[in-house]
């Protein structure tokens, strides 16, 4: 600063009223010695006579020590409140210094704006960039206060405060501002550095300012911040509409005054994308938002469709697969805005104010899923190319989330359809139990689980109640569920006891899992299989890693059945145990999957207690009891699928069941036939006597000939007439083709031809052969 410009302020009479530090160094006079004196007294005496103030140009000053100081003067007027001159600012520089000093040239030609102020915030010097930003030449700024040269707004007052702070504290300062400059319309970001300038004694003699245009860095940080926010704010759910709303919320008001997302209907459904039509494109508005209240810019309401003509920016974006930037004054843009204003007269005023628009396609995995539109009508500046790049990135992220949500919806719909096709639609007719059921698919992002249930009629008016849960979610679990459901029905048809049936089912799951097939859930599933006999009123149940059923007795007490859970299906090598329970008529058995009582935030014992209380609550019917259980036990947002099966037991009394012991003597066959005929007469079923006699004759004969005593004959009058013959032999009969000269071998063939169905089942004492025939219509 040894060659810093000296500045003097004089009033209209030529009296010195301001004295800079540069003037002190140049002349040796301190401010208290110079202020108040006539400026002419400071010259060496050869200044032009009568000139107040002296004119610009070369002059000679008198140093305090007496020697002469040649300088070049620059004189500028100071205007008063009414525009009249109230004084002058005189700057003095050593002749030739600005032109010959390399340091001065570096300062003047710097690529950033640089300015030097005295301690009163008056300009002492500016470089070329600073003058360009101020839109004034240096000669009009030097000597004037900073606030006198700028608009009185917040950021200029802030800069003035920072200049004073640095001048007072002597500490440098760095900060960033984002504002418009006097010669620019669009805001710019500036990194501003202010530091104190000290003289040889170390005192603060002024301040220097350097301002670097950091707009590109500021925009890059802003884009990065938006992208980072998009990573967490977009795609929080697997819902297409919510994802579109999240994109709009991100754009408004930070990036757009109004934004909208329009999708074709196939994205909201489960259809494949059709080819784009040559004419207008039909899109449905799924989300929009505005910086102004009430979205006045919206020409289409939420949920409605609109036809976008081929020349419109959204249609072009969809066809071209890129962002389309449109501005007011362009023919197609003005035409489209005019058509939309005519379509929505209420929004015509807001539409007329739109001056810039960006339409960006939502593209993911090579498929265009819709279009996002960003509009500016409140911001004074329009969109630029870098804005289009940013919105394309945001739209790309949103498109991936929309596509994920669409794929999830399709898979969920497919899994639900497959699962519902496998679950029993209408439960088969049987008299053992009255049933009601509920199935609630999970709404979580994991997808549909493999929960299932079934009611299977068995021989002897018995019924099998089944509930299972396949590990995992989605279509693979549903497919595995279908396999297990079919396997259980097949094994139930063989009439295996519950513990043996689960053993065979466990072998099947182990076999499937060992095949390294991707569509088989790991470690199989859990299952509960129970058989209820309305004649003995006995429930036999076995479980494979499944929750125990609950039983509500007619007296209103409810408890869990103490079933040994056993290992889940697919573990292999471990036995299953069956539990038997005698139930009074009218008991309610509740079978369910773990989604009803298990959750990461719930205690399972407390949940099962809630289940028992809900089962014991008042209910008009079994269906209403189902609804009550789900209402009181399930949390608001279940994290897993739930299957619930309620069965109210019935009993077949002695008037509908008849039993007779048969001695192992062929002569007893006739007596057995007669006994059966007498029972049918007592029941009013004489029409069935002929077929029943043949069935009893063949089954009893086979038991006497090939079986082992004791032999027992039983008739059951239920929805069908059932004839059963039990013996102590475990050898099961089978049909065979008798040859022309064979004396026997046609008995079971006759039974199969004359009855509705027949079969055999193993029991703890041997086997039972049974046959069913329909009752006469009344």
3D architecture notes:
The chain is α+β, with helices and mostly antiparallel strands. Helix content is 31%, strand content 29%. It is built from 20 helices and 31 strands. Strands 13-12-11-16-15-14 form a 6-stranded antiparallel beta sheet, with helices on both faces. About 1% of the residues have low confidence.
In brief:
The chain is α+β, with helices and mostly antiparallel strands and 778 residues long.
Describe the secondary-structure layout.
Layout: E1 6-11, E2 16-19, H1 21-27, H2 31-34, E3 57-62, E4 68-79, E5 85-93, H3 97-100, H4 102-108, E6 113-118, E7 123-126, H5 128-134, H6 154-169, E8 173-179, E9 188-198, E10 204-213, H7 215-233, H8 240-251, E11 258-263, H9 265-268, E12 281-290, E13 305-308, H10 313-320, E14 324-327, H11 331-343, H12 348-352, E15 356-364, E16 367-376, H13 385-422, E17 433-440, E18 449-457, E19 463-473, H14 475-493, H15 498-513, E20 525-533, E21 538-544, E22 550-552, E23 558-560, E24 578-582, E25 588-592, H16 604-615, H17 622-633, E26 642-649, E27 657-662, H18 668-683, H19 689-706, E28 711-717, E29 720-727, H20 747-754, E30 757-763, E31 766-774
Antiparallel strand pairs: 1-2, 1-5, 3-4, 4-5, 6-7, 6-10, 8-9, 9-10, 11-12, 11-16, 12-13, 14-15, 15-16, 17-26, 18-19, 19-20, 20-21, 21-24, 22-23, 22-25, 25-26, 27-28, 28-29, 29-31, 30-31
